[in-house]
Design a protein that fits this description.
This is histidine kinase. This protein has helices at 2-60, 73-83, 121-129, 204-212, 250-330, 336-363, 376-388, 412-435, 489-499; strands at 92-96, 102-106, 133-136, 144-152, 155-164, 181-185, 191-193, 218-222, 225-233, 243-249, 372-375, 398-402, 407-410, 444-451, 454-461, 503-508, 513-520. It is built from 9 helices and 17 strands. It is an alpha+beta fold.
Length: 525
């Protein structure tokens, strides 16, 4: 049983391990897709921002563009021609002097924020280093700006600044592809996109966690949610450190897979469980069948040994009884005591003769070749004549109702012996019930009738019935509750009836017992 339990644990653990492996594979596949999505979006964004920076730089390198001198006619014409209602910069373009003064813009009333331009980090960086920059216009409120220096003789003479309305999805790929959240960071960890920022507090620690996703995509907790994240560097000529991170809700995406895998898991567990239960049932049934077969084999061996021994003993007893019976037939009672003793001796000799015949029949059952057509009522009467010689029959009346004309193919000796055992047991049980005071007036009723194609012999008594402890072993050899019996009568009677294709059954009555013998009748043409 321990091995079977171990087999069950292994069988049920296998789909659980497969379930965990499937979830892990699905998570890795989602991370792979997310990494590819981040890479594609970062490349698209880099190309777009690079084109914007290149367009501004192309105009900034024009020799006629000198912001310090104010906006001359040729400059305004050139700028209007390049940016008037241009779709490149959704908020507009402005030409700034080194001190932060706007000398031209499209549209004319473009917003440049409330604080002085020369106080903003990106403005000072462009002036100091003479390099382009992509940053937020003012603080964290946006919009996103692309600033390009205008240089003359190695000195920064002004700036061209293009503003992008990030909330209107101006950048291709940034909010596409199914990601729940796309975040653009600059080289210093400042959040550039989305603008305005979502409802979470930005911090350097969060920027560090997002940068780690570029090396190792994986799960992270974001505002109490389990997310899957990946990141990729945005490549813009002259601008370093920009990073695009994409995040997806792991619980939502994995939950769908979990439901599917869980359904498969439950199906596999149910299938394996039912198979294991069926295997256990069949194994237990086979084991019980094996035990029953071993028990039958031991019983058969025991019965064979008992049969051989009983046959030997019965032969010796029968030979001795024949001599005693012959001697008793020559005796005549000589006195009053002899008149009582001689019938008692004859009754005991007859009882021992019946026991010897039972032992002989148990040890060597009759063959089926001795069968012939028999009138069943004659066989019953023959058995009753033998029972009437039993001393107990004087105290227990036997009521007989026999239907004539019932013929069956039978071995008369076997059937007479079987009927004799049934009636004799009933009479002896009635005598015991009378002697113990259980039944002052015991009786036995024997009826022979026909039902369909069967002859039905019923032997009924009012002796109280078979002992309840003995009833489960009623048909076993040598099972008896009577001091005078050896427990062979009923097993031999049932074996004899079943060898004729019939049945012998017992039913408990309110005040006694009912044995029912069924035999198939001989079919008549």
């Amino acid at each position: 049983m321990a091995g079977l339990a171990l087999l069950g644990v292994v069988a049920l653990a296998s789909p659980l391990l497969a379930y965990r492996e499937d979830l892990q594979n699905a998570r890795e596949e989602m991370l792979g897709n997310l990494s590819s999505q981040a890479q594609v979006q970062a490349e698209a964004l880099g190309v777009h921002l690079g084109l914007l920076e290149a367009e501004l730089r192309r105009l900034a390198e024009h020799p006629q563009l000198i912001p310090e001198d104010g906006s001359s006619g040729p400059e305004v014409a050139m700028l209007d021609s390049a940016f008037h209602h241009s779709p490149l910069f959704s908020e507009g373009v402005a030409l700034l002097t080194p001190d932060g003064r706007c000398v031209w813009s499209d549209p004319a009333q473009i917003s440049l924020g409330d604080s002085p331009l020369d106080s903003r980090p990106w403005f000072r960086r462009v002036l100091a280093e003479g390099v382009s920059d992509i940053n937020l216009l003012e603080g964290t409120g946006g919009p996103l700006v692309v600033a390009v220096p205008i240089t003359h003789d190695g000195k920064v003479a002004g700036l061209l600044v293009g503003e992008l309305r990030a909330g209107a999805r101006p950048l291709p790929g940034v909010r596409s592809g199914g990601a729940d959240l796309s975040l653009l960071l600059d080289g210093e960890g400042q959040l550039l996109l989305p603008v305005p920022a979502p409802n979470f507090a930005w911090s350097a620690e969060r920027a560090s966690r997002l940068r780690a996703l570029a090396e190792a995509p994986g799960p992270l907790v974001w505002d109490g949610k389990r997310m899957l994240g990946a990141a990729a560097h945005v490549s813009v000529p002259g601008i370093n450190g920009m990073l695009l991170a994409v995040l997806e809700d792991e619980e939502r995406d994995i939950a769908r897979l979990q439901r599917r895998f869980l359904g498969q898991l439950l199906f596999h567990i149910a299938l394996l469980g039912s198979t294991l239960l069926l295997f256990t049932f069949l194994l237990r049934r086979s084991y019980l069948s094996l035990l029953a077969a071993e028990e039958r084999l031991r019983h058969q061996e025991t019965m064979a040994a008992l049969g051989a021994a009983s046959q030997l003993i019965a032969h010796e007893v029968k030979n001795a009884l024949n001599g005693i019976q012959a001697a008793l037939s020559l005796l005549r009672p000589a006195a009053t005591a002899g008149e009582v003793a001689l019938p008692a001796l004859r009754a005991q000799v007859q009882r021992l003769g019946h026991l010897a015949r039972s032992l002989l029949s148990f040890g060597a059952p009759r063959a089926a070749a001795l069968r012939r057509p028999c009138e069943l009522h004659l066989l019953v009467e023959e058995a009753l004549q033998s029972v009437r010689l039993v001393p107990e029959s004087e105290d227990v009346p036997v009521q007989v109702t026999l239907q004539e004309g019932l013929t069956a193919q039978a071995d008369p000796a076997l059937l007479v012996s079987a009927i004799d055992n049934l009636v004799r047991n009933a009479v002896e049980a009635g005598a015991v019930a009378r002697d113990t005071g259980l039944r002052p007036s015991p009786w036995v009723r024997v009826t022979l009738t026909r039902e369909a194609n069967e002859a039905i012999l019923r032997v009924e008594d009012n002796a109280g019935g078979v002992d309840t402890d003995l009833e489960p072993r009623l048909w076993e050899p040598f099972a008896t509750a009577r001091a005078k019996g050896v427990g062979l009568g009923l097993p031999m009677a049932r074996a004899a009836v079943e060898s004729h294709g019939g049945q012998l059954t017992y039913h408990r009555l309110p005040d006694g017992s009912l044995f029912t013998l069924r035999l198939p009748l001989e079919s008549t043409p």
